[in-house]
Amino acid sequence: MHNRIGSGILALLLVLGLSLSHAEGNRITNGALAFTVSNDLRVVVSRIENGKDVFLCNSPALFHLKTSTGDVQFPAGKVSIKQHKNSLSLGALDASGKIYVSGSIIADRKFNQSLTLSFDVKNISQAEITLTKVELIRFELNAQNFGADSSWKFETFQGGSYIARPDWVFALTKDYARGNFMGNNNPDYGGGIPVVDLWARKQGIAFASLAPRPEQISLPVQVTPSGQVAFALTDERAGKLAAGAVFQPVPIAIILHNGDFYNPLHEYSLMMQSRGFRINQSVPSARETEWCAWGYGRDFTLDQIYKALPMAAALNFKWATLDDGWQDADGDWGLSKEKFPNGNRDFKALVDSMHAKKLKARLWWVPLTAGDSAYNVKVYPNRMNEYAMKVQSKLALEHPDWFVLDKDGNRYQVEWWNTYVLCPALPEVREYYKKFLTKALNEWGFDGFKIDGQNLNAVPPCYNPAHHHATPYESCYAIPEFFKMVYQTVNKLRDNAVIQMCPCGSNFSFYNIPWTSQFVASDPSSSWQVRHRGKTFQALVGNKVPFAGDHVELTNRQWDVASQKSLPFKSEDFASTVAVGGVIATKFTAPGIKQMDSTVMLTPDKEAIWKNWMNVYDKEQLSSGEYVNLYDIAFDVPETHVIKKGNVLYYSFFSDKPFNGNVTLRGLGGKTYSVVDYANGKKYGDVTGKNPNISVDFRDFLLLKVVEKP
């Protein structure tokens, strides 16, 4: 029966004109990108140079399927590929006649040097099939073909989220391997940007998922023993496929590019927007600077905050954020009786004090978690002395069926808070949080939110039988929908409200972008992280949604083994935030009052520095400018960023070592320009577009303002 069905499919292909050509080399191009597929599904990717194809990389198979009985083979005699004006269409029948794959490879001329690939996998047998692997585009790449001096020496952007909080942009090492799973890599770390970019000095190539929602896929990168770099895109949702059913792997994009990772990320964002993905324009108040009470930690006192507020106002900060520690129990989001003995009266008085000093009030909270000491006693009896393990939320007692459960019926714990993940797919969970948001805005008087937590990118699949999910992945798909509810609720209740989302050092879920009005560097461990994360968001959204560099006190610290603390080793870095068009944020504390960390105290000397940078920010307003990608962040020395505002260009240079030499100001027109260090007032004279080189001598950073002369 299976063979007869397969023969029928082949006959139908012939009727439709999709003849089973045995000719090698079905080729499609877009700009300088050439993509060739043979009739045994081997792939070659080339760069078109002077009218000729220059080999870049190849794949032994356009797709690779595996079932419970072994690898699925697609003989060349059962593969049909037809060439159209801007696309290739294909049909492939496996050797057993049970599986039929149809697909298309499209060159959309709106996106130069890019191709999109999509496939359908159909079970044409009369019995259930178990797909155990669905792998798309399995490439081995040699970086020397892209301009490197060694086969594995790629620079890379990788969008996965991990508990180690790695850099998003870095150089591969000889023994590198990472799965880049876009589901949960830890119970509370997951999601991210489903893109991998590999580039060298001459050329780069990126691979991306074009799925409209977060899917359980992997984009693994590995340096092989031979020194090649292996990449594939694997759809992890593979499973049982009923007779006649169709499995649709995620559509993917291949993007060839020059320059660094910014260019393919920007192209990816435009491709997603062309498919209906939206990026909302943030309100002006999202570009305003922020003071946060986190310098006092969870154990803050009201006296500490009240003493810092006038200092923040005097420095012209516009937002004051009340951070972790105000709540009675995560999940309940009521008020701590210890901090606010008079309840709402004390809480409202704090918000009123912020407003009286012309500060907008922002409230910190963590979504979709709740503490449950009763559960902890049963499951983790030896951990009861850890933070919050003895805290019992009312939510957990009243709604124990709201939690995400794994296949064995266990909950997922979120570290740091030691709480448990709630299911965002439940309407009653969304309604619960809608009531909290309404209370915070209407009753307490807050103007916006800081939504925190490494768990906000993704939640694991939910197997809780009480939820009656059609698929366990409903919980994963519901994360963007949950934040859509938050965004719409908040903006309906408060004009100019700001929703800052901070996924605690991990990458940022691309699918949450429409529902945030301010990104943040998210617990950066270095100035480099501030800059390349800022550049990432500039590539994805431009200046529609501003980026905050997070607290300037974060990146000047190193772990001190003797004291078991992170201690300052240099001055606070404002320049990295300003350079990429970021919004300044701080967590300084007031002197003259007892506190846990005196190193973040705003001493008179520091206050003068803060005042200078605030004046720079308020005067220049780079956060409203346009990032212009004129320099490769990996290969151009010194590292350079450019922001354009009207006819003014702002160049920012960074170097880990003292730099003394010439820099070239790219992007100038044919006129004359004055050059000044706008952070320190030093004048560098004039330059022209014909001779845009200037001699500079700086340590750490140099910020130049280049103005066209009349």
Q: Please state roughly what percent of the residues sit in beta strands, choosing from under 5%, 5-15%, 15-25%, 25-35%, 35-45% or over 45%.
A: 25-35%
CA distance, first residue to last residue: 81 Å
Please state the CA-atom Rg, rounded to the nearest Å.
27 Å
The helix content, as a percent range, equals 10-25%
Unreliable parts: 1-23
Give me some keywords for this one:
single chain; 710 residues; 12-stranded antiparallel beta sheet; 10-stranded antiparallel beta sheet; 43 strands
Strand-helix topology:
Elements: H1 2-15, E1 26-30, E2 33-37, E3 43-49, E4 52-59, E5 63-67, E6 70-71, E7 79-83, E8 87-93, E9 99-106, E10 114-123, E11 129-141, E12 155-160, E13 169-171, E14 177-178, E15 184-186, E16 189-190, E17 192-199, E18 204-209, E19 217-218, E20 221-223, E21 229-235, E22 240-241, E23 246-247, E24 252-257, H2 262-274, E25 290-292, H3 302-314, E26 319-322, H4 344-356, E27 360-365, E28 369-370, H5 373-379, H6 394-398, E29 413-414, E30 419-421, H7 427-443, E31 448-452, H8 474-493, E32 498-502, E33 519-520, H9 527-541, E34 547-551, E35 557-560, E36 565-568, H10 575-579, E37 582-586, H11 604-620, E38 626-627, E39 639-645, E40 648-664, E41 672-677, E42 683-688, E43 693-708
